[in-house]
Specification:
With about 160 residues, this protein is mainly alpha-helical. About 90% of the residues lie in helices and about 0% in strands. It is built from three helices and no strands. Helix 1 packs antiparallel against helix 2 and helix 1 runs parallel beside helix 3. It is rod-shaped. It starts with a helix and ends with a helix.
Length: about 160
């Protein structure tokens, strides 16, 4: 196969990766909204996790294919830069876009992680408070039951 075809496959691969990163950013932004709702929409959040997993798998496949093809044409591109000038510029532009989108995605993920940590911390506190309230109520009722039987004993004794 002609090396020019391989170079165009590299460009096509980066274009697809760019598109998938756009979708990932969109889903991650939606996840941020799901987490910040009151109450948080955990069902939709979980659904979006599955969608992201599928997209990430596709991106990993593209990355593997890109690396294999790049290794095949790397020498040709570097030794004949003049012949591939336009393609190299397009590849560089696409790589820059991918890098910027990856950085944006990473920042969104960090924010979502912090929001989730806060959510789980609050839930943990709610559970702890509920258990404490339950225990307190249970102890109160036990004490009241013990006091009532003691009072009735004294009332019976006074008569």
């Amino acid at each position: 196969m002609d090396n020019a075809i391989y170079v165009h496959i590299l460009i096509d691969t980066l274009t697809k990766k760019n598109s998938l990163l756009d979708k990932l950013i969109q889903i991650t932004t939606m996840q941020e909204e799901y987490i910040t709702l009151t109450p948080p929409d955990i069902d939709n959040f979980e659904t979006s996790l599955n969608e992201k997993e599928t997209l990430i798998e596709k991106i990993n496949e593209l990355d593997e294919g890109f690396e294999k093809i790049y290794e095949h044409v790397k020498e040709e591109i570097t030794s004949n830069k003049i012949n591939h000038k336009e393609d190299i510029l397009e590849l560089q532009s696409l790589i820059k876009q991918v890098t910027e989108k990856s950085a944006k995605l990473q920042a969104l993920e960090i924010r979502n992680k912090k929001s989730l940590e806060i959510f789980f911390s609050n839930k943990k506190k709610e559970i702890k408070d509920f258990k404490q309230s339950s225990k307190t109520a249970s102890n109160y009722y036990k004490n009241m039951m013990n006091q009532q039987s003691g009072e009735s004993y004294f009332l019976d004794k006074k008569n």
